[in-house]
């Protein structure tokens, strides 16, 4: 699905040198690279504060702790997303209040928000799924009206730009109270292991996020709140500093691949190409088709046999996962997400895809429908 080796080969001298410098310094924990990376990502994203942490799941958990969400509180979240978003809600004793997604952009459907709201609701977690932004204007208006906090799960959409109706632009993750992201190797900005970060514009929240990520302490051995141990390794920060310099180029290559797929599949009647959201650029973390006529699994098996990888993100919506049965949802509650789980298929998309490789993928998909 991605070619991390080819990507590494192209930046090998830069990355190897950065890693070697950390090895020479032996400042493996909280070395200077961590702070430098946070500053550079702050410059790049427009978030005033960037607080690195150990992974994207921790980032979500720390965000919810920093906002003071308490057991029994409810958090609105799309049911069509990666499990991490909902896992931390449940782990903190909160209750996920699911909403459906839009059938064409796969983003949270703002029309479902009102129904998900109760007197216990404290927050919303829009997920910028596959690489483009949720309708943030709709989410913010609803949050403001109902006094809710907004945490943007930006694990799949780092660098995507949202345009408000007044023309103002902002990057994914810098719009809500807190944005969270992941540097898992296959994410758009990936390191060589685990990593994550939180974004905010609010200095007090930034301080709380930093404190919670560091055992609830501002001063060593003086603990003001219950915290966690969640750090970005210096080695990973060194790698990320190099890769951040290439991120715009990486997003542009992903878009070229997506455009070629669009052109190739736009005319296939059984295939729906991904729709671009109106107010967002797309960084194509995933290129996801919808396969009509119940043929998705057959196509996936066919592709596998011909040597073309493909993936189903995600086969089961979260409200129907065994782990989340206790929250009382049933089949039929979120028909769009349930139907998408049967239709979606993501094709390889990455920064090093050459036209010959892509031609082979395109021809193989097309040959299935002949
Ligand atoms: C990858 C991902 C996460 C979790 O990131 P990790 O770094 O793997 O913990 C959270 N949310 C979404 C939508 C993701 O895709």
UniProtKB/TrEMBL annotation:
<dbReference type="InterPro" id="IPR015422">
    <property type="entry name" value="PyrdxlP-dep_Trfase_small"/>
</dbReference>
<comment type="similarity">
    <text>Belongs to the DegT/DnrJ/EryC1 family.</text>
</comment>
<dbReference type="InterPro" id="IPR000653">
    <property type="entry name" value="DegT/StrS_aminotransferase"/>
</dbReference>
<protein>
    <submittedName>
        <fullName>dTDP-4-amino-4,6-dideoxygalactose transaminase</fullName>
    </submittedName>
</protein>
<dbReference type="GO" id="GO:0000271">
    <property type="term" value="P:polysaccharide biosynthetic process"/>
</dbReference>
<dbReference type="InterPro" id="IPR015421">
    <property type="entry name" value="PyrdxlP-dep_Trfase_major"/>
</dbReference>
<dbReference type="InterPro" id="IPR015424">
    <property type="entry name" value="PyrdxlP-dep_Trfase"/>
</dbReference>
<feature type="active site" description="Proton acceptor">
    <location>
        <position position="187"/>
    </location>
</feature>
<feature type="modified residue" description="N6-(pyridoxal phosphate)lysine">
    <location>
        <position position="187"/>
    </location>
</feature>
<dbReference type="GO" id="GO:0030170">
    <property type="term" value="F:pyridoxal phosphate binding"/>
</dbReference>
<dbReference type="Pfam" id="PF01041">
    <property type="entry name" value="DegT_DnrJ_EryC1"/>
</dbReference>
<keyword id="KW-0663">Pyridoxal phosphate</keyword>
<dbReference type="GO" id="GO:0008483">
    <property type="term" value="F:transaminase activity"/>
</dbReference>
